[in-house]
């Protein structure tokens, strides 16, 4: 974090944004609620932990603010320290008081690409694969990589959420997304430029989460039964 954000931006964060911003985490499995955002700040996105906003006078930076009660701020700062500089990742310019100032990445999430019918070339998938391999070489563990956490910009792939890269448990989301890309998207959606309504994408997301939860529960039950058999 040897690069620094504009001093006027940091001043505006402390004097205008933080005292008046109202965000809350209603459900840890759903995006947070932004109840009030002071002018002239603009909402760029929101996840299950934090909101991402920017000031129109400083569009080259974004501010990621964690909702009250949500953990992960210190871990995300550590991940950015480990990543350093890489074209597929943002960079942290400032971090304090549960918010980070990040270099802004432009693009469209793969989730939104599906909704808009935008073609996703193989280069995007390859770029993201290479970026995740780079993160592993930095001692990190890419985690929770799904369609809303990766973007496409001018035909290249970007990773926009690295907040869970310290989690060491296995995560198959990216591999599952790649399988869907090669087995379903390329032969069907890509040539036809099909647009998928958000309502359908949301159903798919919820079904995937439910299926993953059921699979995990079954594995845990099988493990307990196996251990019980050996203990007898």
Topology, element by element:
Layout: H1 7-17, E1 22-24, E2 33-36, E3 42-46, E4 50-54, E5 61-66, H2 73-83, E6 92-96, E7 99-103, E8 108-109, H3 110-116, H4 122-137, E9 150-153, E10 156-159, H5 173-192, H6 198-231
Antiparallel strand pairs: 1-2, 3-4, 4-5, 5-7, 6-7, 8-9, 9-10
Protein described:
Helix content is 43%, strand content 19%. It contains 6 helices and 10 strands; from the N terminus they run αβββββαβββααββαα. It is globular, with a radius of gyration of 19 Å. Strand 3 (42-46) and strand 4 form a beta hairpin. With 232 residues, it is an alpha+beta fold.
Which terms would index this structure?
about 230 residues; alpha+beta; five-stranded antiparallel β-sheet; three-stranded antiparallel β-sheet; 10 strands; about 45% helix; about 20% strand
């Amino acid at each position: 974090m040897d690069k620094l954000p504009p001093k006027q931006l940091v001043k505006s964060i402390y004097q205008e944004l933080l005292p008046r911003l109202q965000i809350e985490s209603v459900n840890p499995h759903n995006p947070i609620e932004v109840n009030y955002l002071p002018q002239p700040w603009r909402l760029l996105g929101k996840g299950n932990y934090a909101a991402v906003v920017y000031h129109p006078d400083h569009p080259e930076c974004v501010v990621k603010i964690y909702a009250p009660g949500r953990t992960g701020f210190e871990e995300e700062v550590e991940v950015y320290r480990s990543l350093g500089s890489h074209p597929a990742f943002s960079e942290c310019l400032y971090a304090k008081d549960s918010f980070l100032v990040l270099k802004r990445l432009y693009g469209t999430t793969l989730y939104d690409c599906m909704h808009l019918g935008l073609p996703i070339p193989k280069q995007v998938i390859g770029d993201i694969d290479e970026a995740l391999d780079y993160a592993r070489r930095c001692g990190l563990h890419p985690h929770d990589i799904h369609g809303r956490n990766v973007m496409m910009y001018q035909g290249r792939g970007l990773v926009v959420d690295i907040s869970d890269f310290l989690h060491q448990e296995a995560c198959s989301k990216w591999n599952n997304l790649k399988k869907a890309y090669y087995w379903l998207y390329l032969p069907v959606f890509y040539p036809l430029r099909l647009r998928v309504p958000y309502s359908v994408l949301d159903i798919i997301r919820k079904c995937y989460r439910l299926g993953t939860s059921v699979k995990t529960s079954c594995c845990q039950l099988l493990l307990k039964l196996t251990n019980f058999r050996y203990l007898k």
